[in-house]
Structures are given as C-alpha cells and as structure tokens.
C-alpha cells in the first residue's frame, strides 16, 4: 500500500494557472535568453570583484600584518568567488551549447536545465560552507581527513536523503517525466509542478500540492498520461442483479447519455465490459478513449456517465 504523503492546500482563491505558468523552471526561449544575459553580467561583476581581491592580496600584502582578520575575509571571499566563477562559467557554456542544440525545439518543460540548476546550487552551497571554514581559520585538508569516520556515519544515517537526491537527479536528466506532465504515481495523480532533489510536487484535481518522495517514484507504478497520444476514461461500477436490464441495454443508455459528445471521443471506442458476477450484484466497467488529454472534458463525461449510472441503479430506469 502506498504510504500517506503530506498534502498542502493552496490558499483560497489562488490562481493555480498563474502559479504554474510562471514557475521558474517552466520557461520559454525568450526567458532563457534573458536569463543567459543576466548570468553573463553577473559573471562579469563577480570576475571583477575576484580580480580586485587578487590584486589587493598581491599588491598590499603588508596590510595583512596589521589586520589578520582582513586576510581571513579576503581569503575566504577569493576561495568562494573562485569556485563560484568556475561553476558559473561551466553553467554558461552548457546553457549556450544546450540552447543552440534545441534551437527548433520547445523548452517549456525542460528537465535538463532543471537538473543543471540544482547541481550548481548544491555545489555553490558546498563551497560557501568551505569558505566559512576558511574564514574561521580552519585547515580544510586537516578537517576533511579528521571527519572521515564521522562522514561515513552521517552518510549512513542520511542514506534516504542521499537516495532521494540521486533519484531526483536521474528524473531531472531523463525525459520520462517532465514539468507539466499529468501522471499517476501509486495512488496519487496530478500535474507535475516541480522536481526537487528530495521530492516531486504534484497538483491534484482539488488544487492541492502533493509531495511525493523521489524514492517512491522509482518503486511505485508510474503512469504518464501526457506521454500518451490518447486518454482513456474508465469508470467501474456495480449494479443490482435484480435490475431488469441486459448489459446491451445498459451500454445503450450510457451511450445515449453522452450522445451530445460523440465528436469528442474516438469513434467505436465506447464499450461496456462485465468484469465480475457476484451473488447480489454485477461489476461493470465502462470505457471510452479521448483523442487527447483534456481534464475538463474528462470531468464532464465522467459526471454525465455517473449521473446516468446512479439513475439506473436507484430508479431502475
């Protein structure tokens, strides 16, 4: 059985469509260009600051004899900025190469850039923590060698988080699941809003955000409805055996209830199947196929069919 997951209700009156369209990872080519330009300007600014610190360290080294605290600050800043510049340069190069490669392809649902952003954020965080250690005069080499046993214990205790992070990166760099896809993961279904290193965020039909651990995505049965060219609408129900209707008559009534929507589903895809015959009731399954994914149309058809099924069950026709 799928474990229960936290469900976060959205604020009353929130515009979910607005939230989804402007998700920072759901961007267009134009936004990518603007972001690329912004990152280039930021890279140049950081480079100038880094060069200024290096110049000050080389040309005014005597100042550090008086102000040792200033040496620690500039040393930590140069360490972090140097690492950050390398990460930013790699990010810009990969981004330029990737956008040129996908020149004629849509990038609204791009997992590659999502994964790249996550990795750069993690690396920047690691180097920032190391820079803080440099600021307080901690020898990084001695620190790393002294915490080997502790690190192994921490890794063992946090293996679930590490597994989630690795699974998250695998999802980001694959094309099986993308932002905006409508999926079913175990007992949970909805639209993918975001993919983080810890969990996958779904928006269900009740406008609630469901946090699904990345490890569950790899162990549960996942159905990606957006990757299919068609959408099947299935309703399973039970009827009393005493009702004076044959399966053909029930199918005909259900067909008639949605005759105004004949052009919205695939011709001849409507069918009623008898799944099981019990002592007091019969289990049926009605199924039809939509030519594309349309949640609003699916909900209308389900409501009409459910209403007709209730009418048959309660009034006997």
TrEMBL record:
Gene Ontology cellular component annotations, sorted alphabetically: membrane
Superkingdom as given in the UniProt entry: Bacteria
Presence of the UniProt keyword Thylakoid in the record: no
Database matches in Gene3D superfamilies: 1.10.287.1260, 2.30.30.60
Keyword field: Membrane, Transmembrane, Transmembrane helix
Main location: membrane
Domain Mechanosensitive ion channel MscS, chain residue ranges per copy: 160-227
Signal sequence interval, chain numbering: none
Molecular function per GO: mechanosensitive monoatomic ion channel activity
One protein family per Pfam: MS_channel_2nd
Protein's cellular compartments: Membrane
Membrane-crossing residue ranges in chain numbering: 41-58, 78-98, 119-138
Protein name: Small-conductance mechanosensitive channel
């Amino acid at each position: 059985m799928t474990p229960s997951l936290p469900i976060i209700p959205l604020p009353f009156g929130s515009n979910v469509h607005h939230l989804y369209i402007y998700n920072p990872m759901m961007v267009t080519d134009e936004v990518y260009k603007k972001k690329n330009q912004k990152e280039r300007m930021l890279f140049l600014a950081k480079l100038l600051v880094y060069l200024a610190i290096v110049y000050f360290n080389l040309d005014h080294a005597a100042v550090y004899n008086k102000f040792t605290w200033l040496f620690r600050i500039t040393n930590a800043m140069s360490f972090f900025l140097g690492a950050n510049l390398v990460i930013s340069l790699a990010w810009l190069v990969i981004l330029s190469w990737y956008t040129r490669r996908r020149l004629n392809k849509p990038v609204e649902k791009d997992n590659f850039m999502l994964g790249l952003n996550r990795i750069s954020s993690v690396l920047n965080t690691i180097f920032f923590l190391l820079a803080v250690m440099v600021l307080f005069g901690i020898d990084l080499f001695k620190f790393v060698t002294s915490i080997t046993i502790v690190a192994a214990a921490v890794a063992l205790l946090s293996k679930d988080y590490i597994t989630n992070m690795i699974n998250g990166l695998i999802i980001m760099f694959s094309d099986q699941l993308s932002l905006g896809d409508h999926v079913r993961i175990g007992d949970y279904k909805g639209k993918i809003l975001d993919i983080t290193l810890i969990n996958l965020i779904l928006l269900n039909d009740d406008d609630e955000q469901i946090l699904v651990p990345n490890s569950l995505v790899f162990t549960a049965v996942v159905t990606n409805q957006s990757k299919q060219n068609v959408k099947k609408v299935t309703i399973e129900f039970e009827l009393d055996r005493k009702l004076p209707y044959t399966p053909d008559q029930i199918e005909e009534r259900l067909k008639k209830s949605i005759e105004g929507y004949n052009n919205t589903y695939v011709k001849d895809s409507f069918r009623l199947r008898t799944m099981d015959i019990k002592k007091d009731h019969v289990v049926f399954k009605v199924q039809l196929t939509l030519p594309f994914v349309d949640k609003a149309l699916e909900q209308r058809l389900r409501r009409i069919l459910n209403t007709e099924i209730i009418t048959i069950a309660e009034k006997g026709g």
